[in-house]
Design goal:
Structural class of chain A: alpha/beta
Radius of gyration of chain A: 23 Å
Helix content of chain A: 25-40%
Low-confidence stretches of chain A: none
Oligomer: homodimer
CATH topology of the largest domain in chain A: Dihydrodipicolinate Reductase, domain 2
Number of domains of chain A: 3
CATH architecture of the largest domain in chain A: 2-Layer Sandwich
CATH superfamily of the largest domain in chain A: Dihydrodipicolinate Reductase, domain 2
Number of helices of chain A: 14
Strand content of chain A: 25-35%
Largest sheet of chain A: 11 strands, mixed
Chain lengths: ~400, ~400
């Protein structure tokens, strides 16, 4: 019999509690022991519910209880989650969390505390919800030189873009629908501005390099500027617009970008629609491996947290993954990255088209039947070259990188 | 510095040797030590090559060398691989293998020997090549009640079916092309009859149930009967024909089937083409998770074997995964499984169509412009019902289950 505690009874914390109950038998069979939730830390009381008997408002009730061997932190945010986790690790308890903000901000400190105390700090649920991407990188693709990781890491934005594509509505209409369905929060900035995807990309890049990649250093563009017209062009091309988080690794340096991209149908990320997440890891030996599934949702995320709990209980005596160092990774800006670009420009006739084609050195014209404008797909060039050339294009409206 | 040995210098064994050399720096960084291949067991000599100095024809040179801590077995087949692996495990060495036939046949004995000697027996490369599906099941989706696993587990057959679809050729033409490209063996029976996929499915089902699922008990149909006409119908429907290995789990019993299926475009396996493999795991909490990538090929497979070696060296003092028991899983035959079916039948006119629709209790007619015949998609029914009804259909040509 093993006891755990849950800090933060929000959607995910409650999901973990429910899952451990629902799948008690399967988990006991695999682990050889039953897992019980002994304590739940929350600011609130839940007087109408059975779980109230487990609720405490004092973190010491968890830290000082020697029977509790694993702490699940599903509070979110940096503080007080960080202090609580450090206390738990120092008390010899394993910590499993879904808190991406904390992992991205304080990873090295938490790994160090776990190593010192010979316990585990696991965070599978912090990226990709129920998709086991963290353990794939830390335990499975370990013989690879990873050249690139590309993902749809945010379900809210993917839902909004899919909805705009399928229903032809505006960004605002799609966002409203996502809010109604509970896929977007009241304040959707963290999702729609690409911050959530950026944090997750920082975590993946930190694992891959073994050094700290800070979210703040990642170029991040959101989807708030995507319009119905952009979607019309993407359909005309047979592409789909998705918020892509991508990092590439070369000579020890990281180039990372979160931005809406026009995704070609050949891409493994093209069929990832709605609230699904998908991640492609490109290794020098294995080629491309795709992982996809539910990137959010209480139960999918709880599944990842619970798998961490099981792994921590199985590996009670050693630190399985020692994390990335506090040393910062070398970050390159994207000016040298090469893309093809989709460009919208004002123009009416062959002369306008020819002018644009000559500026970009070729490409192809797309007509989405939008008055007084046209689209263009450029040849591949660096960001720097593109900025220069697009500055020369009179009537330039906007551009979206192609993936 | 850690020493390993490779038994069997075929495509995969050589891939492991090359990979450990090519990615030496990355691996040393992650493991904290360098890995060297000290011995290679093979029947042949390689006098022209640098590796000849490592070659031995005597397994004792490996078993009795205390410096060798991990043995990679890439010989294939049950014997002598089994005896060699048991010797290695009993000598306190970890064993990592790509040998699916051995894992399927002798898994419980190998796990028992690993447990007794407190070492690891790993077999990530036995299913899905470079796709980390084994560790996903043993280490990541451990909090799930898995209801179903469905996969395209054989790259050769997927290549043949994709080629028939893209190029419109016959089965024989596509098989010939696969042989020319090295995707199919001289004797392709193990692939095209579904045996390879069946063995891999047996391994996945054994992990999921924790009991032995024998390949011999899995209903297996190959792709040799798939014709150009079948492909024409699948295109007419917007479906694609793929060899699907699928097992479902209910009340402790397993229902498993390897068979060509008409795959609907909504299926996560629909975009898996060519030599790619794809596996969908359906859990009661996580929903559907898709894993896809190169299912074969020297380097992709070597990547999985090498990751196992790294994991074994990291977990030197404990048995990480203790495997499935020798007790046989309860296998249900497919007669109670429910599918929709695609049916081809002789017929010319509305009367024939109406007759077929009335026998199957509805459905839809497909016209692929093939003389004197028509296609039909039935409503969902059990295999048993379907066999009864299709027996009543005069002019029945063939059927393919829909996924």
């Amino acid at each position: 019999m093993k006891y755990i505690a849950i800090m933060g009874l929000g959607t995910i914390g409650r999901g973990v509690y429910d899952l451990l109950k629902e799948n008690r038998r399967e988990i006991a069979e695999r682990l050889g022991e039953e897992i019980f939730v002994k304590r739940i830390l929350d600011l609130r009381d839940f007087p109408e519910e059975e779980i109230q008997r487990l609720v405490t408002h004092d973190v010491a009730d968890i830290i000082e209880d020697p029977e509790i061997s694993v702490v699940v932190e599903t509070m979110g945010g940096v503080e007080p989650a960080f202090s609580f986790e450090i206390k738990a690790l120092n008390a010899g308890k394993h910590v499993c969390t879904s808190n991406k903000e904390l992992v991205e901000n304080k990873g090295p400190e938490l790994f160090a505390a776990a190593r010192e105390n010979k316990v585990n700090f696991f965070f599978e649920a912090s990226v990709g919800g129920g998709i086991p991407i963290i353990r794939a990188l830390t335990g499975s693709l370990t013989a690879e030189r990873v050249g690139r990781v590309s993902g749809i890491l945010n379900g809210t934005t993917n839902y909004i873009l899919s909805s705009m594509t399928n229903e032809g509505g505006t960004y605002e209409e799609a966002l409203n629908k996502a809010m109604q369905l509970g896929y977007a929060e009241r304040n959707p900035a963290a999702d729609v501005e690409g911050f959530d995807a950026g944090r997750k990309l920082a975590i993946l890049a930190s694992i891959i390099t073994g050094r700290r990649v800070c979210f703040g250093e990642i170029s991040t563009e959101g989807i708030t500027g995507i319009t119905r017209e952009d979607i019309r062009y993407s359909k005309e091309l047979g592409y789909s617009i998705k918020l892509i988080a991508e990092a590439s690794f070369e000579d020890g340096a990281v180039t990372a970008l979160v931005a809406p991209r026009m995704v070609r149908p050949e891409s493994a990320l093209h069929p990832i629609n709605g609230v699904q997440n998908g991640i492609v890891v490109c290794g020098n030996m294995v080629g491309k491996v795709l992982f996809s599934g539910e990137g959010a949702g209480a139960y999918a995320t709880a599944s990842a947290v619970s798998a961490d709990v099981i792994e921590a209980l199985r590996r009670c005596t050693e630190t399985v993954y020692s994390g990335w160092s506090s040393e910062k990774a070398d970050i390159r800006d994207v000016s040298g990255s090469r893309y093809r670009y989709f460009v919208r420009a004002v123009g009416y006739n062959q002369e306008d088209y020819d002018n644009a084609l000559s500026i970009f050195g070729g490409g192809s014209i797309i007509n989405a039947h939008i008055q007084a404008e046209f689209g263009l797909v450029t040849p591949e060039m660096t960001e720097e070259e593109f900025h220069k050339k697009s500055g020369e294009l009179i009537g330039f409206i906007k551009s979206i990188r192609i993936k």
